[in-house]
Amino acid sequence: MLKLRTSDAGFDKAFARLVKDRRESDENVARDVQTIIDDVRLRGDEALAEYTERFDQHLPAEDDWRIPAEACREAFDGLKPDLRAALELAAQRIRAYHEAQLPEDRDYTDAAGIRLGARWTAVDGAGLYVPGGRAAYPSSLLMNAIPAKVAGVERLVVVTPTPKGLVNPLVLAAAHLAGVDEVWRVGGAQAVAALAYGTKRIKPVDVITGPGNAWVAEAKRQLFGVVGIDMVAGPSEILVIADGKNDPQWIAADLLSQAEHDPSAQAILITDDEGFADQVADMVGVEIALLPTAKVAKASWDAHGTIIVVNSLDEAPALANALAAEHVEIATDSPERLFDKIRHAGSVFLGRMTPEAIGDYVAGPNHVLPTGRRARFSSGLSVLDFMKRTSFIAVSDASISAVGPAAVELAEAEGLAAHARSIALRLGQ
Amino acid sequence: MLKLRTSDAGFDKAFARLVKDRRESDENVARDVQTIIDDVRLRGDEALAEYTERFDQHLPAEDDWRIPAEACREAFDGLKPDLRAALELAAQRIRAYHEAQLPEDRDYTDAAGIRLGARWTAVDGAGLYVPGGRAAYPSSLLMNAIPAKVAGVERLVVVTPTPKGLVNPLVLAAAHLAGVDEVWRVGGAQAVAALAYGTKRIKPVDVITGPGNAWVAEAKRQLFGVVGIDMVAGPSEILVIADGKNDPQWIAADLLSQAEHDPSAQAILITDDEGFADQVADMVGVEIALLPTAKVAKASWDAHGTIIVVNSLDEAPALANALAAEHVEIATDSPERLFDKIRHAGSVFLGRMTPEAIGDYVAGPNHVLPTGRRARFSSGLSVLDFMKRTSFIAVSDASISAVGPAAVELAEAEGLAAHARSIALRLGQ
Predict the structure, then answer these.
(1) What residues in A contact B361, CB-CB < 8 Å?
(2) Residues B273 and B150 in one domain
(3) The last residue of a domain, from among A211, A229, A247
(4) Of A372, A404, A419, which is closest to B257 when you measure between CB atoms?
(5) Structural domain range at position B406
(6) pLDDT higher than 80, residue B27
(7) Cα–Cα distance between B88 and B109 in angstroms, integer?
(8) Which tens digit of pLDDT belongs to each residue from A2-19?
(9) Residues A184 and A104 in one domain
(10) N or C terminus of chain A with fewer C-beta within 10 Å?
(11) What ipTM does the predicted assembly reach?
């Protein structure tokens, strides 16, 4: 854990290092991923089977590649009642928040008599990657699948590896609840390639979202442009801005809630109370000991955990904007005062009663958020990731004279003679 | 030019080939671009100078890398009056259309007493690539710069190569009109790398947009994630859907207005009138002969031009959706009837008086549009490309009991103990 004070000489340098700290895997997977993509594109299901057998140590039978809808329904029906109710509450709240995100079409005629507008439509098909093993979170499935369905996507396809043939019933249950249309037992870069190019078995999709390991992330990056993707995702982050009036145990738990995700995750506390800072640091140690996820959480906190003591919390927004963190908690009495000055953040959690984890599950806004300072230029997942906009223009016989001559002038200046002629002919020139 | 009839045996196969036709450069530039990016990242301005001298055959003097605002103003003042008025009309109409695109923030408290919302903000800095030479279009500068300024971007930076030191006064004039903040004489992958990572001279930006050659496009693709980018762009396309009541000369000019952009551009006509199809084909030959851009237009039309004769225009929307073209003209009396069935298109031009070129200059909607079938999943450039959304959540003492227990249930099911504890502690558990 690193401790900094803004009043210390050398703070600027140390903070700049923190901002530049790249916690993302530099694993050199680009070439391997390209080989896999080319191979799946060329040989389709045959390549998919070979990679699946090699990486998942399991080769599904001919009729077992697709997990039937019935199996998903059964998994859902088999949930213990409290968990089923919790999933249902989460789904309902996520749906409500994302329904209000649906963009409005535009269609108007302006003063020049030209009709202009834009029409939004959903993509035909979306693919959702769901990791196998430890990171197979039903909440992530809901957070990706529900916006797609709210957007109006007709064909929503889940791919998920089933190492040694084992499926995660929680994931199947969430797929049922979210209305997923197809679930395939394939994973890794090979599954992403299959979604992008299609195989005999799996029809291609138009957009691919969902979390994954370095191979999956690299495959999405390489296939960006062949399909749409949501974002390049990195390890999770939390920035907690807290005054000294918080319970140090609560804040310690909040910091650890991101640290427990990944040894590369980062938890940062900014506080104006040095005594409180020390209490939180102590409490992190106490809390870690209680966690089944202690090993991961400790690795993250030791390597990347940071406490910054400021003279006044008024210094916090500038630091937060430079960090552009995925999650920002503001645990003060008047959090809006600071929030109004924070421009770059994935999601902000206001007040002492809003731990970040509430947003991971049941608040409603999406928990798929930009990491690695990408909140400077990108947003959390939304219905817009599954939609596209078609603009339209209608010029009438009467209105072409209002804009046509200027367009001819510009086309000629740019040396585009056919552009100019296509308008000039209609102007009777 | 290829001619197909939907009534012919073998149409499906031929049409599938047309849809799959990749007209994008496969130039193997990826490795060279990566070398340039790494070099600029490491050595900054020194590398930038070396590449500029090599590729642009020109090394600006120490104080001449940046083109002063004054030079842009002078270029604008020096325009002939008609051209200046045309640029001003274009800028005003583009601004009006994009101002209405500004997204609304959300802030509400739901039935559970939880405050939820989303706040949109502009990126701090945007970089705009403007090609040198033939493809340096002032209209493209306006189409990229104005949405950025409407979004609220404070620092808008243009990079543009000046081969042998020559600048394009039209581009400088447009930069002045659009309120560009900095113009630098650098181009190629090295300019994109400088914008993404920053050098001593050029501060980094958060988003990079704008057209360019294969090297520029590849640099943007590789730097996606370090910065935001608009899209992966390919050669231009037009699909004209026209009945037999059109003037074949007008339609020929429309087809050629895209063909003249690039030998890889594609112009396609769908008509239900075989006689009209032949008249258009003849007229394309007549019109090409009149064009200063004849060489490019002919190369495009010969290699990629296509006429599809359908039994009824009712067949057109399905073909249009499969092609997902950048530009779609519908030249019929009731174009809405077909438009209502077209889901995948960058921009649609309705009626006989709306040639695509009107949209390139003065209509208002953006002319930066998805190519290469990417209208299946992506949209034209908009203010949203220069903005990002921060969601927020505020749970009160009273409302945490409404959602907290469900969140604890889900966190425990996912094995994320610190997530569960951060909520359970606040519930007094």
Answers:
(1) 406-407, 410-411, 419
(2) no
(3) A229
(4) A419
(5) 395-424
(6) no
(7) 44
(8) 999 999 999 999 999 999
(9) yes
(10) C
(11) 0.96
